[in-house]
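QUALITY CONTROL LOG
STEP: pairwise intake check
CHECKER ROLE: data steward
CRITERIA: each record must contain a sequence immediately followed by its C-alpha cells, with no blank fields

ENTRY 1 OF 2
RESULT FIELD BELOW
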Amino acid sequence: MEREKPLRLDRRQLLVGGGLVAGAAGLGGAAVYALRGDGGPAPAAQPAAAADDDGEFALDGEHTDLTTFVLAPHPRRVREAIERHRAALDASPSLALLEGEPALEDAAREAAADYLGTSPDLVALTDSTTMGLGLVYAGLALAAGDEVLTTEHDFYATHEALRLRAERDRIRVERVALYDDPASADAGRLADAVADRITPRTRAVAVTWVHSSTGVKLPLADLAEVVADANRDRAPEERVLLCVDGVHGFGVEAASPVELGADVFVSGCHKWLFGPRGTGLVWATPEAWERLRPTIPSFSPQAYVAWLEGRAPTGGPPGPFMTPGGYQSFEHRWALPEAFALHQELGRGEVEAHTHGLATRLKERLGELAGVRIVTPISEELSAGLVCCELDGLGPPDAALRLRDEHRVIASVTPYATSYLRFGPSIANDEADVDAAVEAVRALTA
C-alpha cells in the first residue's frame, strides 16, 4: 500500500541544542525539519510519527530507494501544483494558456534566478540537461579549427553533443583524463590537468560538476581560476568559456555555480532539486550569452514580433530568447517554482549538510565491509551525494538486482563502459535508509 515518505534532515541535527524548527507550517503541513538560520529559539520538533503521517514523498514504503536522483519523485507541493494546473488546462486549455502564460513561465524563470542568485533574463528554460547541453554546444559560436576541451569522465550527452558539432563544423574536441583512481582524486591535480590542456585554440571547457560515473565532484572555483588565467590576454571572442553540466550538484550543493565562476551552467530540475519531471534550465553570463545562438525558435515576444514585422529579432533578454518555443508540458513547467521554494525553505546549507552527511555515513560504513571498495572520494570537497562502489565477485548489474529482489533496496548501475554500483541518499532519505542499504550489501558480501 502506498504511504507518504517523510522528508527529513539528518537526525543528528534534530538533537543538537534544540536549534531546530519543524517546517510544517511553511510546507503546507508536511513535517520537514530544518535548522533555523537566524539562530533564534525554535519550536519543538514534531515526532517522527507525525512526519510519517504527513510526509512529502509518496514512495511505496516497501523499498529503500537510494536512486531518487535518477528521476525524482514529486514532493507533495509539486504534485499538488501540477494537478492544479492540469485541472485548469483540462477545464479550458485556451483560458488556462491565456491566463497563465507568460506569467507562470516568468515565475518559473524568476524562481530559478532567485535560487541561482542571478537575473531571470539570463535563465532559459528547457526540458532536461540533455536538451540544455544540445542547445549550448550546437549554438556556441565556433569556427573550423576551434577547440572544445572536455574530459574522459563526462556523460554521453556532453560527448555526443560535441561530437555532432564537430562533425558538422569541423571543430576539434579534445578529452583529458583528470584522474586514474577516483577515490584518490586531488583538487589541485584536477585543476592542473585542465590547465595543461588549454591551448590558444581552446574556446570552451566542457565539464561536469559531479561525475555520475564515479561521484567525483570537480572544484569549480579552481577551474574558474584556471580559465580566468587562460583568458588574461585574449580578445573577447577568443576567451575560453567554462561550461558546466551541473545536474548532480544542483539541489545538493549550497554554493551557486554563479558564485563559483561558471560561464554557462546547464541542469535538469528533476533530479536532486526534486522539481517536476521534464524541466531544466540554462544560465549564462551576459558575455557568454553573446556567444550563444538559438537552434530552436523561441516564442519570446521579441522574436515573435520580429517575425510579424518581417525582420530578424534584435534585443531582448537572452534567457527567453534561448528558451525553445512550442507547446510544453505546461503543468510541469508552471509547478517548477514549488521545487525551488521547498529548497529555499529547507535551507540550502541544511540540504547540503543532510545529503553530504548521509553520503559520508554510507561511504564510511560500506568501507568497513570486507569485499567492498569505495570508488567515490570520502572528502566532501570532492564528492556530493553520489556514492559508487565495487563488490568483490559480484558485478554491478547483478548486485543491483539482488539488492532489489532479496533486500528491497534500490540502487543503480552507472551507465558507462566501466560501471559501478551506485547509491544516492537525498532529502527523501534518512539514516535508517543508509543503514538498511549497508546491511543489504553486507548480506551480499558475507
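ENTRY 2 OF 2
RESULT FIELD BELOW
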Amino acid sequence: MSERIFNFSAGPAVLPEEVLKQAQKDLWDLADTGVGVIEHSHRGKAFMKVIEEAEADCRALADIPDKYRVLFLQGGASLQFAMVPMNLLNKHATADYLMTGTWSKKAVEEAKLFGNVHVAGTSKPTNFDRIPKAEDIQYSARPAYVHFTSNNTIFGTQWAKEPDVPMGVSMVCDASSDIFSRPIDVSKYGLIYAGAQKNLGPSGVVLVIIRNDMLKSVRDDIPTMLKYTTHAENGSMFNTPNTFGIYVMGQSFKWIQKLGGLKAMAERNAAKAKLIYDCIDNSDFFNGTAQPDSRSLMNICFRAPSEELEAKFITEAKAAGFDGLKGHRSVGGMRASTYNALPPKACAALVEFMKKFEMANR
C-alpha cells in the first residue's frame, strides 16, 4: 500500500485521517450491525442514529439556535445558487449580491432567472484580488436578502467578518470553502449553505442552515424537491439522501469537537496559513495574488516569476509528495488549500520545499 502524501487540493479535499480510518471500519460494519454504513436503509434505526447525531453535533459545534433548521441536501453549492432565489425571490423583488469571485458571479447569473439582482459591491475591476470595502458597497432600497461568498477559492480572498447589511435584511452566505474553519455567529444569518467537499466531508452533500422565518417565505410555485420547506418538514429525508456523505460529515463534526471546536480550529488554520504567507512575503521569487488585508486562510494563491517556472514547481512538488498545488485553470499560478483537515506538518513541509525551489531556480 502506498503512503499518503500531502493533499493541497481545492476540493474534493483532504479529510482527517482519523475520520477516514473510522469510515473504513464502518463501511464494513456500522456499530456492530453486520451491515456497512452505505448499505443501511436511510429510514432504519442505524442510519437514523447517524443523521440525528450529525445534526446534534453540527448544532453544538456552531451553537445553532433552535429557530434554525439544519438540512443535509444534494446538488452541491451550484444548485443552491438557484435554490436560494427560486425559494426567496420573485420577479417583483430585488436581491443584493456581493460579487467577489467566480462562484458569486455564477450565483448572480442564477438569481437573475427569478427576480431582480443588484450587485451591491464587487472587486471585479481589480480581478477579484480583494474584498470590497464598506464604503464601496451600495445596497438597494429594500433587498429581499443580501448574498455573499465568505471565501473565494479561485482568487484566494476571504471576508474577515460578515458585511454590514441594512437593518432587517437577511444575509445569505455561500460558506462552502470556509465553513466551520472558525467561529461563526449563526444568528446573524438568514441562510447559510456549504458544499461539504472542502471542510466537512465528501462531495455530493450540502449543509444548509436556514432560519424558520425564511421558510415561511418559500414560494409555492416551485418544484417540490427544490423547496426548502419540503426538506425541513421531512428531516432531510423526503427522498433517499446521500447517506455516506452525511455519515462522513457527522464524523468530521466529532473530529472538530475533539480538537477543541471552532475556536481551536481557527487558531490551527491561522497558524498554518501564516507559515506559507510568511514564506511568500519574505521571498523575492514568489508573489501572493490577493491583497494582504483580504487574504484567505483556506486558499493561498501565489505566482512564480514565469509560467515555465510555475509548471516546473508543480511538477517537482508532486514528485516530492505535494499534490493539488496547481492554480485554477482560469487564473493559473499555484494554490495551496489549507482546509481544516490538512495537518500543520504539511504546511511546514511545503515551506521548506518552496525555499529550496527558490534557491535552485533563481
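INTAKE CHECK: passed for both entries
DESCRIPTIVE NOTE, ENTRY 2: The longest helix spans residues 261-281.
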